[in-house]
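Worked problem 6 (solution included).
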Amino acid sequence: MNAALFRETLVGDVGLIGLLLLVGVLLRATLRPLQWLMLPAPVIAGLLGFLLGPNVLGAAASANHWMIGSWQVSGLPFSPYVGSYTTILIAVVFSCMALSQEFGISKMTRSLGGFAGYGVLMSAGQVLVGMLLALFVLGPVFSEPASMGLILFASWSGGFGTSAAMGDVFAANGQPEVTSVAFTSATVGMLSGIVGGVILARIGASRGQVAAFDTSEALPRSLRTGVLDDEERRPFGHHTMSGSSIETLSLHVALVGTIVGLGYVIQSTSADWLNAFALPLFTTAFLVGILVRWIFKRTRAIRVVDEQTTKAISGAASDVLIVCGMVSIEPSFVSAHLASLVLIFVLGLAFCLFLGLVVAPRFLQDHWFEKQLFTWGWATGSVATGIALLRIVDPELESGTVEDFGYAYIPLIPIEGAAVAIAPLLVVAGASWSVALIWGVIALAGFAVLARSRRPARA
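Solution. The predicted structure is:
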């Protein structure tokens, strides 16, 4: 691609993505059905981009020669490269994660350990049941590749970001359809999680397990519309640099860009050496980010890195990633795997419901309903979905579930990271059973920690 064509396609794609995001924000702020569903503006924008883009409206208009007068109807003129942006954007997200994540277990009490074990069981269990479904049913009956076994974890516990990351790995190994299937599954998971979460909240209220429940009106207006009231507004970061040298945001963008660039060099080198086992860009960027953070901490340069600014960059990249990924969904890929996707959805819902309604009340301790409802939200959609559902049954967040999750999530970081970076490579190498075995053991370990937390501590 020459420089002029690249500039034109990039500017066009950026303009369309920006317009769709603005429309998504407007629709979320004004339409009550979207507020009830708590759909994030990027998801609304992605759905619009998918329906109005070249793969749906554009393809239908071209096939049927739709005309308005002398004007040929066509979809939004996205470039063919819009789906490839997700590779860079997910690398940005992982770079920011490495820069901003601080590890520590000083507050991991027995109760928190049980919550952590429940999260590990939910996350690793999705890998296990998905792989078993692929190995015993989807493969023998529907001739599906083993990669379908990772769709449940990638799109539900992982969300759109993990869907993009795993999609990159499989696309590089001759399975481009995984990205479209995973993004479709992530969209269904989010919708199922929201609707199912509201139903679970109603069940909990009817049984006296929670004190508060009143449909979407239980949520603050700002959470429903997405627009913060004046008293809720807060800075998303703090200046660490003087503008006479460089703006703080510019420094952080430069730092993240350098990490992604170094990750690309390592990824290209690993591709030359390892071929099919080459590390994906998001993995190498994450590793470089960890190294950079370690160097910055050793040299005390870490004081110029603002965690909230880094997270804001990550959040912005995630928003754009969702739009790009959904716009690039290929309907033909989804329809070819529709029966398998339905089975994955049914199994995923059954598994999450079993943990929430059978395991959680027996093993989680204080505020078990709030914890399982929050976990249901992030395990089907995102942490933001979990918080939104939690606000329905715990409007003032008095249960401490969100704070506990901050520490309970620590053991999940390496487990989910390994599932994203290593599991796809094992599947590509033909070691699908090893994925089921490894994450099966991890799921059992999570259950053991959960069960142990139920017993009183020794005096």
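Discussion: The two ends are 70 Å apart (CA to CA).
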